[in-house]
User: Fold this.
Amino acid sequence: MSMSKPAKVALIAMGCEKNVVNSEQMLWLLDRAGFEMVGDPAEADVTVINTCAFIESARREALEQIAEVMETDSKIVLAGCLAEYHKKMPLKDLPEIDGYIGAGRFDSAADAVRDVLEGRNPCYFGELDAPVSETPRIYTGPPHTACLKIAEGCDNRCSYCAIPSLRGPYRSRRMEAVLDEARALAGRGVTELIVIAQDTTRYGIDLYGGPRLPELLEGLCKIDGPRRLRLHYLYPGLITEQLMDTVAAQPKIARYLDIPMQHASDRILRAMNRRYTRADLERLIQTLRDRIPGVVLRTSLIVGFPGETQADYEELLDFLQNAQIPRTGIFTYSREAGTAAAALPEQVPERTKRHRQKSIEKLQSRVADAFNRGREGSIADVLTEGYDRYAGVYYGRSEAESPDVDGVVFFTSEQPVPAGEWVRVLLDGAFGGDGKGAVIP
Assistant:
């Protein structure tokens, strides 16, 4: 008796690294259910598209991806934030979809695909305040670097942000579950863990009655294998002295902190519902530099928030000139339906937003160049990522570069250096906006 072939399923992951983790969990569920996973939707019976809907450009990108898959014969299951967004605010131009998986029901991926194959149109939407699913994941990234998500959702309620309505309130994972996953990743050869959440500083408040990020980091540092832990997305008002001391004391934790500040005008910060002032930010930056020698700061900023005047913008420029933050992402405000900021008057013209964005990018490019010049003569532990055969050099990342958002360090070596190997590099200058140097013993 012949057995029928398993259905073929493709999975497309879009959006941030936190969303990629959910895609890897769905991949594990689909593989465990016996489906044959394929990389091309043209070969698939069903394609699951896990989407981002944080801002309009992300939704547009997702719709373009859906349109591409619709040109094939594959059925489509829409998952993640765009599914959740569509549930609340139906999109007129959303093409016909065969099934939906909301942001609270990633663990229903296999059931949704089965339903579609059997001719049903499933809509799996769970409660967004449910505990974080501890579904395992099939890791799809580079073998040496992995993201470790420690929480889901957000409680900050920034007036411009739709994440709480799409992903729910802040829910921490149990500490032992996070440590178990870290051990499993270490067992696969991962040597750099990137600790992520929408707000890592809030970790543990909901489960344990107080912030537990320092305790979690100390536990992660005891795990054999990983040589570097990297922290992303710390809320400025929740960075405690204990956390600073932990980062300073633990050699495995990168002296690199990603702290989205968003603006520096007190008036705009209040309108954004960010609970700190410019003076608070300036004190925080100085304290971090005093208590964590050599710390590299990254931030993200929004220009063109409703009501942002030329004076507000110039105050932001002045703050950045003084702060000299070497790693900065500058974004233009996106008006998101359902957020408090969308109803504010005095929306800033797009042309003004772009002009302000480009001006800050020029300033920050000079800051980054000065940072690279200041590193000349220092030695960096670099995680090798590959070889640029056109330039004839290797490249990797020191603790000052996070994947995808920062540059790299280019370096030469007398011996072959495989991807994933750690080397000591003497920095001797810059290559464009990147560092450069040579391997030393």
Notes: The two ends are 63 Å apart (CA to CA). The mean pLDDT is 94.
